[in-house]
Specification:
Elements (H helix, E strand, L loop, with lengths): L38 E8 L3 E6 L5 E5 L3 E6 L2 E2 L4 E2 L12 E6 L5 E7 L5 E9 L2 E13 L11 E3 L5 E5 L21 E5 L25 E4 L6 E4 L6 E5 L5 E7 L14 E2 L2 E2 L14 E4 L7 E6 L12 E5 L4 E8 L2 E11 L3 E6 L5 E5 L3 E7 L1
């Protein structure tokens, strides 16, 4: 691990998220009622294969680069790397540095990456004065991955102060090991842990399966194929998950802030609202609030955020998301967990790999080729 300025040659045109989905697809949507918010994408920086980001101390945005570096986006653009683990990860398949997060007090910084063996790893660093303290590094959680795709890897702190971790079903295609519906594995799941409550972590006592001897205590929700990006609505606390589909359907899942966990989103019996390869819909299946088919250019949903910024009043309360292959930025109008409209915002982030929410609720779009663009009013 290196904590110094490093000029690195990182992967070129490797298709990071295209392999999340095994076929090409479309993101055509019905027209939204009323007029869509008028926005533009303003390029604010260029990174080396940016993969994720998070709001940081002092109004900054911290950007993860897939090969293992983290750089801070400030008023003058991206700074030099503040963290470099490029010697500890690999970018084959869908691997690399896949997620970053701060706790609510910006006292600890967390990274989610696949190590050289492909094992998903979540590490913690103490932060003092806005700076990572390298000698405080510790590993919080690991999960062996059987294949190089469907790692998931996104991490976020929820409104409850717990760390949520999204893992895909382990990879290949069609969930060959049945991990999505198997409660005895962390794969194909949304996890919820307390990293500060124990060593290496504690289980929140109200997790939904803590009293089930056949299930892993860390599980918050299951039946996910590859929940590449998820978020919490900063206004309501609701959870939204962009789960990448297999053959025909991309989906966005939702749970209210009042949820007690335990949602089953259906994979691999279901792909969206449709039985997958003759699957039977589970009795407790929670269908997506939105899905779109694969008849055109889209292939991998990129989950985003409910907009809570101030710069674009017409966008407030709408869930902004994209697709890796299609690149169009879209928005869902939501009411009590129901979609009341879908709009095309008229901007395209290219091969969009992630959206990032800044401290004041403004949103950034990351393109895997390097662009970092802010969604501004037109």
């Amino acid at each position: 691990m290196k904590f110094r300025t490093r000029s690195s040659a990182i992967i070129g045109a490797i298709c990071l998220v295209a392999s999340l989905a095994l076929t090409t697809a479309s993101a055509d949507e019905p027209a939204a009622p009323g007029q869509a918010a008028k926005v533009t994408l303003k390029k604010v920086a260029t990174a080396q294969n940016p993969s994720a980001g998070t709001a940081g101390p002092g109004g900054t945005v911290w950007i993860a680069e897939r090969a293992g570096t983290v750089r801070v986006l400030g008023p003058k653009g991206l700074g030099e790397p503040v963290l470099d683990i490029s010697g500890e990860t690999t970018t084959d398949g869908e691997r690399g540095l896949l997620g970053v997060a701060f706790d609510k007090r910006f006292a600890h910084f967390y990274i989610s990456f696949t190590n050289l063996e492909g094992t998903s790893t979540v590490d913690e660093f103490a932060v003092r004065g806005g700076r990572i303290q390298p000698n405080t590094r510790r590993t919080v959680l690991t999960q062996t991955q059987p294949y190089s795709n469907h790692n998931g890897g996104d991490i976020k702190f929820g409104p409850d102060g717990y760390l949520y971790i999204a893992f895909g079903d382990g990879g290949a295609g069609g969930d060959p090991h049945g991990n999505g519906q198997n409660l005895d594995t962390l794969l194909g799941k949304m996890l919820r842990i307390d990293p500060s409550g124990g060593k290496p972590y504690a289980i929140p006592p109200d997790n939904p399966f803590v009293d089930d001897p056949t299930a892993r205590d860390e599980i918050w929700a299951y039946g996910l194929r590859n929940p590449w990006r998820f978020s919490f609505d900063a206004g309501t606390g609701d959870l939204l998950i962009g789960d990448v589909g297999q053959s025909d359907w991309e989906e966005i899942d939702w749970a209210p802030a009042s949820s007690k966990g335990g949602e089953n989103y259906g994979w691999s019996q279901m792909e969206g609202t449709h039985p997958f390869r003759g699957g039977t819909e589970p009795a407790n299946h929670v269908p997506p609030i939105h899905e779109y088919d694969r008849n055109g250019l889209g292939c991998s949903v990129i989950g985003g955020f409910v907009y809570r910024g101030k710069a674009i009043p017409d966008l407030k309360g709408q869930y902004v998301f994209s697709d890796y292959c299609d690149g169009t930025v879209r928005a869902l109008q939501l009411e009590n967990g129901k979609v009341t409209g879908v709009s095309d915002l008229g901007v395209n982030g290219g091969e969009t790999v992630s959206l990032v929410q800044g401290c004041k609720g403004e949103l950034y779009v990351l393109g895997i080729a390097g662009s970092i663009s802010r969604i501004d009013p037109a």
